[in-house]
Each structure stands twice: as structure tokens, then as C-alpha cells.
Design a protein that fits this description.
Helix content is about 40%, strand content about 20%. By secondary structure, the chain is an alpha+beta fold. It has one domain. The strands form 3 sheets. Strands 2, 3, 4, 5, 7, 8 and 9 form a 7-stranded mixed β-sheet that branches. The protein is globular and about 50 Å long. The termini are close together. The mean pLDDT is about 90. This is LicD family protein.
Length: about 260
């Protein structure tokens, strides 16, 4: 197998996005560039230089429709908790011609290069209720993290020992069961009837993920690596809420990636 550099991986990941976007447009499925990928489109017209993945979101009804269509007529390789092929509560489009080893986990969630597809769900109208919902999500999220840490390793020997009970408990529950619970929590509020929406299943930015649905009610095309993909019309409001001054580059010590090794089979 040939080992790939980060720059050699990017065209392969981009091809996954192109294939996915074309399929969605053909089948009238809504999607939007999200997170660092949307930021990359706005700030760099492509990948953030040190980034090594792509994030996309879909309204929950379109997300479920995509899974239904692909289950009947599989044209795109993907994994998700809904068909019991993933240990995470969101979908990954994968490149089966590659093999990936993530260096910070005991086992790699996906053994292939991927594009993350996150469902957009409804959030509570009341912000305080949303914060309570996030506390529940946080507990399950940390269980998911601890379920895949390398046993006996940590930044210090004390930390390595202290995380053992949590890691053992999380493994007993099982990542699939944890993912299913997170998926259930995310669907507490119906997407169509909610005024506030966002990525709940993997809400790494906490309450900042909760946005007015009207920000995503219309779409615009943005350039990304020589292609054009759909983004929310109010991308500036979204990016400002998530990142603040998003046009300013972060310090070098904050420019992180997935710390992975990739081979072409």
C-alpha cells in the first residue's frame, strides 16, 4: 500500500463531496456546507490549509430520505447508526480504496477516508431548555469519547489511571448503544415545526450550534476547490456565532487536524 500525505488525501475527500452533492441535487435533497468546511469556503475558497476533512449537514427529513434511497439503490458508500454500520450518531461517506489509522484512538471509527454528514434537528424554543438538553448530550458525548480511548495512556500517569473506570464503563455500555441514545436525544424536537435548529448529535460548539431556522431557509452556492456547493444564505451570521471573528487565522498551536495515517490500498 502507498502512504498518502495530507495534500494527497484532499482530492480524494473532495471527490466524495462532489459525488454526494451531485446525488443530492439529482434527488432534490437539501444539504449545506458546515463548520470548518463552510469557513474554508468563505475564507480560503477551499480547504482550511491544515484541515483534513469535510463537514456537511442535512435537515433531518432529507438525511433520512438519503439513507432510504441509498439502502434501496446503493450508489454511494456510507456508514451510519441507522443501518447498524457505525458507532457514531451521524453518517460518514467513505472512500473504500483507502485505509486510515487515527493515532489518538484505540480503534478507528472508520478505516477509510470520509466526509461527515450531520443531521440538522430541531432545538427547544427556550434557550434555557436547550442548555438543559445540552447537559444530557454532554454526558453521552464523553461516554462516546471514553469508549474509544487507548487504555493505560494519558498526558500523565495519574490521568491515565483516573480515566480507566470511565473508559471501562463506557466500553461496557458500547459505542453503538451510546450513539443510539445520542440520536434519540437529537430528535426530541421535530425539525419541520421547530423555529430553532442545528447540529445536535455532535454539538461540539455547544449552545452555539442552536441557530434560527430562517438562517438555513435559503441556499446560495459558494466556491470550494474549483467547485460550487450549497451553503446557508446567512453564512456570515452562522460563522460569526460559531467562530466569532472567523476571518482571523487562529494561533498556530490551535491549527489541528485528525492526526491520522492514510494508505491507498
Amino acid at each position: 500500500m502507498k502512504k498518502l500525505t495530507s495534500e494527497e488525501c484532499k482530492p480524494r475527500i473532495l471527490n466524495l463531496l462532489v459525488e454526494f452533492a451531485d446525488y443530492c441535487d439529482t434527488n432534490n435533497l437539501r444539504y449545506y456546507l458546515l463548520g470548518g468546511t463552510l469557513l474554508g469556503a468563505v475564507r480560503h475558497k477551499g480547504f482550511i490549509p491544515w484541515d483534513d476533512d469535510i463537514d456537511v449537514c442535512m435537515p433531518r427529513p432529507d438525511y433520512e430520505r438519503f439513507i432510504e434511497l441509498q439502502s434501496k439503490n446503493k450508489k454511494i458508500e456510507f456508514r451510519c447508526i441507522e443501518n447498524n454500520t457505525s458507532d457514531l450518531p451521524f453518517m460518514k461517506i467513505i472512500d473504500k480504496k483507502t485505509f486510515v489509522r487515527q493515532l489518538y484512538t484505540a480503534e478507528s471509527e472508520t478505516s477509510n477516508l470520509w466526509v461527515d454528514i450531520f443531521p440538522f434537528d430541531g432545538w427547544a424554543f427556550d434557550e434555557q431548555q436547550s442548555k438543559k438538553d445540552m447537559k444530557k448530550w454532554n454526558r453521552w458525548h464523553w461516554l462516546s469519547v471514553y469508549a474509544q480511548v487507548k487504555m493505560g495512556e494519558g498526558t500523565t500517569k495519574v490521568r491515565a489511571i483516573l480515566k480507566l473506570p470511565m473508559a471501562l464503563g463506557a466500553r461496557l455500555i458500547g459505542r453503538k448503544n451510546i450513539a443510539r441514545r445520542m440520536n434519540e436525544l437529537a430528535q426530541k424536537y421535530d425539525y419541520e415545526s421547530s423555529e430553532w435548529v442545528g447540529n445536535f448529535v455532535w454539538a461540539c460548539y455547544g449552545i452555539r450550534e442552536r441557530v434560527p431556522k430562517e438562517w438555513f431557509s435559503q441556499r446560495v452556492k459558494l466556491a470550494f476547490e474549483g467547485h460550487e456547493f450549497w451553503a446557508p444564505k446567512e453564512w456570515d451570521k452562522y460563522l460569526s456565532q460559531i467562530y466569532g471573528d472567523y476571518m482571523t487565522l487562529p494561533p498556530e498551536d490551535k491549527r489541528v487536524n485528525h492526526n491520522m495515517e492514510v494508505w491507498l490500498k
